[in-house]
């Protein structure tokens, strides 16, 4: 699957971020820590 990081289909001002091995995106630091721990243990967050 190819991604073009410069293509934005909507008028969002946020930058697109892509990860190959996992990613956690949240505005809450504690939630980010929990998400990272889940991924490190081989889990999956949706």
Q: How do the SSEs run, as a string of H and E? A: H
Distance between the termini: 19 Å
Give the structural class. Answer: mainly alpha
- Rounded to an integer, what's the Rg over CA atoms? 13 Å
| Gross geometry | flat
Structure description:
The protein has 46 residues and is mainly alpha-helical. Helix content is 26%, strand content 0%. The protein is built from 1 helix and no strands. It has one helix at 29-40. The two termini are 19 Å apart. The mean pLDDT is 78.
Structure keywords:
mainly alpha; 0% strand; single chain; 46 residues; flat
How would you summarize this macromolecular structure in one to three sentences?
This protein is an all-alpha fold and 46 residues long. The chain has one helix spanning 29-40.
Topology:
Elements: H1 29-40
């Amino acid at each position: 699957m190819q991604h073009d990081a410069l293509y934005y289909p909507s008028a969002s001002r946020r930058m697109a971020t892509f990860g190959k091995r996992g990613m956690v995106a949240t505005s809450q630091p504690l939630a980010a820590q929990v998400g990272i721990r889940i991924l490190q243990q081989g889990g999956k967050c949706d």
